[in-house]
Predict the 3D structure of the following.
Amino acid sequence: MRKLNYGKAINEALGQAMELCPDVIVLGQLVDYKSGIFGTTTGLVDRFGPKRVQDFPVSESVMTATALGASLVGLRPVLVHQRMDFMLYSVDAIANWLALWRFKSNGQSSVPVTIRVIVGRGWGQGPQHSKSLHAWFAHLPGLKVAIPATAYDVKGLLLESIFGEDPAMIIENRSLFSMNDHVPENAYRVRYGQATIRRKGKDLTLVAIGVMVPMALRVAEQLAKEGIDIEVIDPRTLTPFDETTICCSVAKTKRLAVADPGWYTGSFAGEIISRTCEHLGTQMKAAPLRVCLPDSHTPMSSALEARYYPSDEDVANRIRVMFGRQPACSAA
Amino acid sequence: MTLSHEEIRRRGDYRDLSIDGFDHETLKKLYYFMLRLRRCELALIDEYHPADEMRCPIHFCVGQEAVPASLSLLLKHDDYLFTHHRSHGYYLAKGAPMNELFAELYGKASGANGGKAGSQDISHPQSRVYGGAILAGALGIAVGAGFGIQLKNTSQIAVTGSGEAATEEGIFWEAINFASVKKLPVVFVCENNRYSTHSPQENRQPPGNISSRVAAFGVRTETLFGNDVIKVYAALKKAVERARAGEGPTFVEAFTYRWNGHVGPENDDHIGYRTADEIEFWKRNCPIALLERQLFDQGVLSQADKEKMSAEIDEEIADAFAFAKASPFPEDADWRRLNLSPSTPLADRLLKDDASAQFDQNQQYAIPGPY
Ligand SMILES: Cc1ncc(C[n+]2csc(CCOP(=O)(O)OP(=O)(O)O)c2C)c(N)n1
Ligand SMILES: [Mg+2]
């Protein structure tokens, strides 16, 4: 099977979408430059020309409004933001216009705009270059939100978004860009609202969001050696959200933990726990657990970053405690 | 003839820098500041790799020393300065200490922000200099500081430095409009270095000067060759005096050029977004060299003076590195305390706790009508 990394899978999805449909265009700062947004748009301008792949002024607000307007004329724009922090100038266009366009037109008007937005850590990115506000956007009705963890999923979800009928936000974590996965060459779909079970287990359901998925799998592997058999579920999309897969798993394991790369308060992890408890609260064997970022802006210093971002050991220890075991001392 | 990057190149090497009638003390200070900023940036560039101890993105400002140098002489301690991501010149212009800048880049507890902010989000509140990496954000806040100064009726001013790309954000024009209508004591300095990362201005903005667009809002503007520090100083001096005199905002568009890559110590010219010719032109027309030639020719300064200054600056830089490297990393973080104030002194003084609240639950909502 062919392997591709996450960044290249995005690049392939964009290229295929543009081949399949002449209405697909890509807009964003530097999308037409060699560096190509971490390689994800590299080569597109050579293949499809400068009309369909356009550098945009540093005007995020009107970029989103432009995409909405262009979608009314029949285009299928894909926007690219190098950081979610920069996209925030366009929150009005997203929350007051894009997300409610279908609703307020009584379903008569579709605005298929795809917003690719990159999040995550990197050398001392600090508080204005690292925010992951997936919970904010999942809160908005009318906007689909995907947070793919694998190259396979990002390609399928990106294609699904571009050719869907509603605005969609794809949240991509930089730490995943170099990770490989089996990626089919054809234009396939990964549907919204379908979680996937990444590892079967019987003692605990561990729901991992986005960049936490590879970590959850490593932790599950580690704890299996200690006799804790973990089922790892990747929801893949937050809106729409697949509650059924998670509830079926928890009905079996009777325990739930969620690993979420967002802040604790108002986290999507809290939403997952709440939904699960609404159905199964009386059957759970242990209080649910969420591992999130602390309620703090991101510190620049590497020394503080190391405390800010949960490590494999942190997640494993929280789970050990859930099972009444001693937390292991961290090596550091 | 409107000035533009193209026009500056067409005119060829710059020969108009004149120090006639300028007092020597000011000239030496301008020169010293530029030399200090240049050497500081070059030292940081040298030190960044391979040690890799400064683990944050840095936007160096080599080649863009004239604006910060001028501001360093014009701003008073209680004036405010708001900078974009390319922050080091502005930080030093406000008199904030070099050793705390370096320690911040190293992520140390003794850094200007205790390692929370790094280069692109740095501030030094005691020196009233504040930065941030979201384009045009700090610029909008400068207008707010100007508004506050006007309400408080003090003689302070607010200055903001940004690049030409900041003018593509909507908030830029909102800020200009508001500063103009309220005649706020604000000076906007735009260092037009032609590029937003790798994208040239002509791909992002219509032709014509940014300053003429700003002038349409009734804001006084100046457009000039930004590597002539004498012109930059004179323009900013006028702007600062007007702001202090309550005559409203000024926008100064200074054409200049960054020598290094957009971010980080590496050169990014392999991307092919600018020509070797262009880079060479701007290096030949270096703001420091242009002034130095006049100072040497007219005997204001000698080679020996320069060497003495350089040695003094290098000592300051070495001390800053030593301070940064010797400082400890921040201790365990108290996230809550870092994000919310642990105390409320004014509320404690002005307000009382009260336990008498008694809501009458037998009331009806008054659902408002359509207007
Ligand atoms: C709102 C926002 N959008 C995009 C960016 C990414 N970005 C960082 S620096 C930069 C270029 C800025 O160019 P300019 O304002 O001319 O300043 P220069 O870097 O040339 O000094 C861009 C686009 C950002 N920091 N903030
Ligand atoms: Mg610029």
Summary: The mean pLDDT of chain B is 97.
